[in-house]
Amino acid sequence: xxxxxxxxxxxxxxxxxxxxxxxxxxxxxxxxxxxxxxxxxxxxxxxxxxxxxxxxxxxxxxxxxxxxxxxxxxxxxxxxxxxxxxxxxxxxxxxxxxxxxxxxxxxxxxxxxxxxxxxxxxxxxxxxxxxxxxxxxxxxxxxxxxxxxxxxxxxxxxxxxxxxxxxxxxxxxxxxxxxxxxxxxxxxxxxxxxxxxxxxxxxxxxxxxxxxxxxxxxxxxxxxxxxxxxxxxxxxxxxxxxxxxxxxxxxxxxxxxxxxxxxxxxxxxxxxxxxxxxxxxxxxxxxxxxxxxxxxxx
Length: 298
Fold this sequence. Notes:
It is globular and about 55 Å long. It has eleven helices and twelve strands. α1 crosses α7 and α3 packs parallel to α4.
């Protein structure tokens, strides 16, 4: 199958392309820059130049392939207009999905477990729970709604991805911890978070591409949820901060920036559906193992 991958040189896209090509699929990778295009060509990947801010370029790529896996996300900084960014992302998704109507081609959207909203309990949430976050709901509704219009729509809801020394959320967690002199957590650090190893996540994308029924959504996590204070301790060790930790009061969560909103409450999901329906069997190291002795260890 020829697969158009947006975000092809990003953290998720890089692992995904390796998995897809290893399984015999052909990839058309989106590149926003000359450097990204060169990186793809060096891997023998066909390049399609495109931008999230240019929906027409995404539509052209979607039309050139049998399936689309959308992993691209714009870079963010302290001055990012988040509402404008979300409008751009929504327009990009809508353009690609609309271009596939009536074709029975596959469109896989990268959403996120954060779409369930702040979780007060510790019972793992399954895919039957509603997506309520305004950052996730519109795109999921658009994609899954297209199932009735001739698009094989699928949604993946990853938790925090980690491994191979990358991950935007983890890098943000490292950055704020270094600035504050210790691994950061919110309040008592008893919030539980699920996570998924990057290679296991890439495998789930491929299995969804090959096996999922139209209109289905799948959580992506592996192993047991971990208390954020324990993760903060491991980040401190990996960052060379000697295991020191820093607690930020919940009422001052903005001090932690983006990552504070992510780790300030429980995020615990069930992946029984992906394992049962797709045969997904995550096998990578745990988040704590990877922090303490893997690709993040100092």
